[in-house]
Every structure is written in C-alpha cells, then in structure tokens.
Design goal:
- The protein has 253 residues and is of the alpha/beta class.
- The protein has seven helices and nine strands, in the order βββαββαααβαβαββα.
- The protein has two domains: 175 residues, Rossmann fold (3-Layer(aba) Sandwich); 70 residues, no CATH class.
- A hairpin with a 5-residue loop joins β1 and β2.
- α2 runs parallel beside α4, α3 crosses α4 and α6 crosses α7.
- It starts with a strand and ends in a 7-residue tail after the last helix.
- The relative contact order is 0.18.
Length: 253
C-alpha cells in the first residue's frame, strides 16, 4: 500500500498542562481500515482530530504525501441539527462547499439511499433511533465524497445489535468506495472485525505500543465473528491491548 499521510513525533499538550499525546509516529496507508485502539483518555480522539486538522500538534508534524485528499469526519455523537429534516442535515456540508442546490439535493438523497434511509429523508432527528441518527451522520460525511473517512467511536453508545449491523454496513461502504478509514474505538471485538490494521495505544500521553496487521476476508459478514480465525485474531488484539495498558515501560508520565 502507498503511504498517504505521516505523523512524525506528534505531541499535544492542552492549555491546562495535560499532555494527551505523544510522541506519536504513525503512517496511514491508502485504502486501509486502520483502527486506533486504547483505553479512554489515551489520546486516540486527539490524534484523530490532528489528522482531521481540527487540532494542531504542540510538537511534531502531520504531512500529507501528495495532494491532500477530501476528508470526512464522523463524531461519536451524531451532531444533527434538530430543527432540520434528515435530507437537510445530510446536505449541510454540500451547502457549505457551495454545491448548487439541485446537485446537493441529489447527492444527499443518494447518500441516504446508501445507508437505507431513503424513506426517512423528510423526518426530523428526534423521531429516529440512535442507530438511524448515526446512519444520517455517516450519510452526511459520504455526501461530500471523502477519500479519507475519520470516525471517532461512532457506535459506542449503540446497543450491540445496532452496532454489529452498522459495522457490516460500514465495511460495505469501505469496499465499494475504496475509502481509507481511520477508526477510533476501545472495543477489541469491533476493531478486530473491521480493521486491516490495528494500532494499540498506551495510557496518556498516548503513544503507539503495537501494530497488528489482520488478514480477514475482505467481504466478511456477521458469520465471520463465529469463526476460529476471528477468535484467534481477537485474542491477539486483546493481549496486545493488555500489554499496552499494563507494561511499566509503556506507562505515560
């Protein structure tokens, strides 16, 4: 795979003096599904926001190799406008980009169809379930046609059934669009199911403890979770996470 972005010795210290991240060295490969896995407070979300350009590093650099790709961001909360119907929520980034209204409406409807919400385009967010609101958030990101999709624990608040279904839908979108996805999670099983590569992170200040390349079937579905291969991969990831969070040499300070 081709490297499209590189974080070199990146650190982030906040105004209150808390060092959240780093030094962090990380390469992002074109077309991969990369998960950042670690305990709460380890700097995963901080790293993701630096990649998105929402935060600047205190030290170190983020470098895009070649032209910077279109980047979409999906937050842990769906962050929908409660006063706007679903289609208008999805159309928002296109309006901000100056896309003509007719084209923006078409792309919004197309994105909603891809997350199976065509019938809810004129519904207000308050009438949707948590899983449906997250689908709207994903559709909003897809409408802008990103090449890189950054996702910050988007399914953490959902029940297991909704979460598993959205995991499968996300993999289908990743395959169909050839996306590069960087996904933040603290779930061993979610990261094992979704990822082509997992980076485990130490407690704050977050640094990389290990990198695990997975060789799961690209067209994996729900039944993949029932296989011995999945169980073996999950055990490997779980052990790597335990080492990252408990080894004295890796503890932050």
């Amino acid at each position: 795979m081709t490297t499209i972005a590189e974080l070199a010795a990146v650190e982030r210290t906040f105004a209150n003096g808390v060092k959240a991240l780093g030094p962090l060295d990380l390469k992002i490969q074109n077309g991969e599904f990369l998960s950042l896995l670690g305990p709460s407070g380890c700097g995963k979300s901080t790293a993701l926001r630096i990649i998105a350009g929402l935060l600047t590093p205190t030290a170190g650099t983020l470098r895009w190799l070649g032209d910077k790709p279109r980047v979409g961001f999906v937050f842990q909360d769906a962050t929908l406008m409660p006063w706007a119907i679903v289609r208008d929520n999805v159309r928002l980034p296109l309006d901000l980009m100056g896309v003509p209204r007719a084209e923006a409406e078409r792309r919004a409807e197309e994105a909603l169809a891809r997350v199976s919400l065509t019938d809810f385009s004129e519904t207000y967010p308050r009438a949707l379930s948590g899983g449906m609101r997250m689908r709207v958030s994903i559709a909003r990101a897809l409408a802008a046609r990103p090449q890189v999709l950054l996702m910050d624990e988007p399914f953490a608040a959902l029940d297991e059934i909704s979460r598993d279904a959205l995991n499968e839908d996300l993999l289908q979108l990743w395959r169909e669009d050839g996306l590069t996805i960087v996904f933040v999670t603290h779930s061993v099983y979610e990261s094992t199911f979704l990822s082509t590569r997992i980076v485990t992170m130490t407690p704050r200040p977050g640094r990389i403890a290990s990198e695990i390349a997975l060789h799961s079937p690209p067209d994996r579905r729900a039944d993949w979770r029932m296989t011995a291969e999945f169980a073996d991969s999950a055990r490997q990831v779980s052990q790597a996470l335990r080492t990252a969070t408990s080894h004295p040499a890796l503890e932050g300070g």
